[in-house]
Design goal:
This protein has about 475 residues and is mainly alpha-helical. It has three domains: about 1-95, Response regulator (Rossmann fold, 3-Layer(aba) Sandwich), CATH 3.40.50.2300; about 115-290, no CATH class; about 295-475, no CATH class. Helix content is about 65%, strand content about 5%. The protein has helices at about 15-30, 50-55, 80-85, 90-95, 110-125, 125-155, 160-190, 195-205, 220-240, 250-290, 300-310, 315-330, 335-360, 365-380, 390-395, 395-415, 435-455, 465-475, and strands at about 1-10, 35-40, 45, 60-65, 75-80. The chain has a five-stranded mixed sheet with strand order 3-2-1-4-5. β2 and β3 form a beta hairpin. α6 packs antiparallel against α7 (about 160-190), α13 (about 335-360) crosses α17 (about 435-455) and α16 packs antiparallel against α17. The longest helix has about 40 residues, at about 250-290. The chain is flat, with a radius of gyration of 25 Å. The relative contact order is 0.08.
Length: about 475
Amino acid sequence: MKFVAITACPTGIAHTFMAEEALKQTAKTLGYDVKVETQGASGAENVLSDEDIRTADAVIIAADKAVDLTRFAGKRLLETSVSSAIKSPTALFEKSLQQPIYGDTTGDYLNKVQQLKSEKKAQTPAFYRHLMNGVSHMLPLVVAGGIFIAVSFAIDINGNNPISAAFMNIGGKSAFTLFVPILAAFIAQSIADRPGFAPGLVGGWIGTQGFMYGSPNASAGYLGGIIAGFLAGYITLALKKGIRLPRTFEGLKPVLILPVLSVGIIGFLMIYVLGKPIAFVMQAMTNGLQHIGATGSIGLGLLLGAMMAFDMGGPVNKVAYFFAVGLLGAHTAESEVIMAAVMGAGMVPPLGLALATFINKRKFHQEERDAGKAAAILGMCFITEGAIPFASNDPLRVIPSIVVGSAITGALSMLFHATSPAPHGGIFVFWLIGNWPMYTLSILIGAVISAIMVLMLKRNVDTSLSSTKQLAATR
């Protein structure tokens, strides 16, 4: 019998490792094979691989804090306390084999989207995974902050109304002030686990404090946050591996030694070495965008639009989106034009494919026709990943079609000078969009072009075949 387990206690110092040892010793006595991942104060150690989980007969989670269980879907899973693993490990092995299968294994459309996203993530370079960990935690602040800023402007652009001022304090002076430090903190945490969080947070915060560089308006911005996050992460990781202490003093390393050294090093680097040059680059980029006219922006709209559709939430898509989000903090008209083009282009792939399934059902097998309804909703919500299952089934025909449609939408949005002060939301923030009728037209044109191209390129599906054979035929 083979088992995998996770042990974790709130402090992550003593009981986490006592539970690990109890499970290992008991498994050895019973003749079982067990691999235990410990989530201690220094971060996760002996991390379970996908192969470890796939081949395990059951999973034991002995934890007194929250543990992400999504990777264990489809396995028998037992959740219990750390003390139970220390006191009664034998009973846990027996009980885990009697547990029901954990998670939803129905494989419906939305689950397939998530599964394909996870597969793509596993294949991406470490640099991108670390960056996306920061972006995913930063995004709620950006979205909420952007919408509150937009509402503030809608009430009173001068900020004299007390309600308008309150919304601006929430969005611009709170959420938007925090998103760069949070970005840096979670990039660093992805690299060095929990010990990386504090130096990343401090490094990102210093990058936004212009007074430290001699100008109250200077800021290293999102670029500084990215650099601070990676520096903090790798510096902390090097310290974590390089500093060796006796087991009895190991608890001092994550709570005292690593924070003091890593925060001090990254703080000095951001104040005296990196912060000012990065702030200069960010200011030069902002000044350059302010001189881009509507006509000259069409090429940029084509490029950003194509990038949004190319890998539907992958690295290329995120570069375009993050470029727009980072500029939005400058609160300029040009940054809002770019944000609108990126959001509109990102809505096109799932909308275009949904439209294609409604126009000509013979080009799609039954699962894809059913998925068209969900893809339409995801597209309206600006979730580009809704197109992934279609592209996965038939990439050579689907990807060029959605890239062309999204590129055209990006260019038209720029041409019409549509603006979006909100970085996300799709149709739910259309009331904040500048020149929304032409913006809507831009999205519809892109979606129609994508749908027409897909229908022209795809062959009719043979309805006499099974669903599995239909998928093979489309490939």
